[in-house]
Specification:
With 379 residues, the protein is an alpha/beta fold. The protein has helices at residues 35-47, 64-71, 94-108, 123-131, 134-143, 158-165, 187-196, 218-224, 233-242, 257-269, 277-291, 313-325, 330-342, 355-359, 366-377; strands at 3-5, 12-14, 16-19, 25-26, 29-33, 52-54, 81-86, 113-121, 147-154, 172-176, 200-204, 247-253.
Length: 379
């Protein structure tokens, strides 16, 4: 296993972290973890050198932390850095932060966690948590030893990311990054901004939730086949992330033992700055092919919002684009769209008033795209 220094801390961690959000399940129910197999996978990863285990309060319907607590019995706890996350959206009072952390410690069967993150921060949730004096809670939990290091995970724009980074003396953060999302959310710029502050950066969604590995178009596979060294789509994606020297841990949510073994092998081999110019060019070719399948050139700036009719314009375009780009199963796309329609956010509510188009800096024909989207999503 390869190990990397964790930011400014006197700590080295495995380049691969075990993300505990996609354990094997029973009967297709994400809340029913296949416990014997999941425990076997976690312990196998640790035996092979993984030292970073990442879970959260809400993963697997609240059962991931309990499973991790079981997996880390028999001496495994002492061999890893254990990370979990505070569900800030559940806190209604300042005291709730302590209650939630104490519940998590009980679930995990530990007296402390090594890495504690404020979970899935965006502008709204950060402001709400800040107003509840969440940073006072973080300072208190650090002081009393319930957490060793403080960080946050993030889903919003770069400007919000920088604001949060600058608000506290964080030890680390967790962001989404893969070769398709170099400018999405925090992106490469955020990675480098945090690293320059001495923070360790942990990466989630290196495979974009499996979109870079499932139903790979024949054209993309042909691009990968150009390379002198043959690799799976998953290996190409992981190697691109690990090629970034600022990345300290890449998390992978693994649901089968062969996923664990492949990721262990890649993480042992893929060093920072190890990809050749030819290999980087091949990855760029794959990225460009995917981008050329984009249906709507929406940047997600949200200038079109709020819609007077409640249509979730950027979210709809994201679904529409990803369905095209990543060959998503039509039935799954239709179900996702049906949920949005049920929530009164669908394109069927468009009034054709044109307010969104007047505000769009990309000058998109939003009304036309919404009509096309609505027709396509119902097939």
């Amino acid at each position: 296993m390869q190990y990397r220094k964790f930011g400014r801390l006197d700590l080295e961690v495995s380049a691969l972290g075990f993300g505990c959000m996609r354990f094997p399940v029973l009967d297709g129910d994400t809340a029913k973890i296949n416990e014997p197999e999941a425990i076997r996978m976690v312990r196998h990863a640790i035996d092979e050198g993984v030292t970073y285990i990442d879970t959260a309060y809400n993963y697997h319907g609240g059962n991931s932390e309990k499973l991790v607590g079981k997996a880390l019995q028999d001496g495994y706890r002492e061999r890893v850095n254990l990370a979990t996350k505070c569900p800030v959206w559940l806190a209604e009072t300042h005291e709730d932060f302590d209650k939630l952390l104490n519940e998590q410690l009980e679930r995990l069967q530990v007296d402390h966690v090594d890495m504690y993150l404020l979970h899935a921060l965006n502008k709204k949730s950060w402001q709400a948590a800040y107003d509840l004096n969440v940073l006072d809670f973080v300072r208190r939990a650090l002081a009393d030893g319930r957490i060793k290091h403080a960080g946050f995970s993030f889903h919003d724009e770069l400007s919000v990311f920088k604001e949060i980074v600058d608000a506290f003396d964080w030890d680390f953060c967790q962001i989404q990054l893969n070769y398709m999302d170099q400018e999405y959310q925090a992106g490469l710029a955020g990675l480098r901004y945090a690293a320059a502050k001495g923070m360790a950066v942990v990466i989630m969604e290196p495979l974009r939730g499996g979109r870079l590995t499932n139903n790979v178009p024949a054209e993309v596979q042909a691009i990968w086949n150009q390379a002198p060294i043959k690799r799976t789509p998953a290996e190409w994606a992981l190697r691109w992330v690990l090629n970034q020297p600022e990345v300290k841990v890449v998390l992978s949510g693994m649901s089968a033992m062969d996923h664990v073994d492949e990721n262990l092998r890649v993480a042992a081999e893929a060093r920072a700055n190890s990809l050749t110019e030819q290999e980087l060019a091949i990855i760029d070719q794959a990225k460009e092919f995917y981008l050329n399948r984009t249906k709507v050139k929406c940047t997600g700036c949200n200038y079109c919002m709020p819609c007077p009719a409640g249509v979730a314009i950027p979210n709809l375009f994201t679904l529409y684009n990803e369905a095209s780009i990543y060959n998503l199963a039509p039935d799954n796309v239709a179900k996702s769209y049906a949920r949005m329609v049920e929530d009164k956010k669908g394109a069927d509510l468009c009034l054709k008033c044109g307010k969104c188009e007047a505000a769009c800096p990309q000058h998109l024909e939003i009304r036309r795209h919404l009509k096309e989207l609505h027709s396509a999503m119902q097939r």
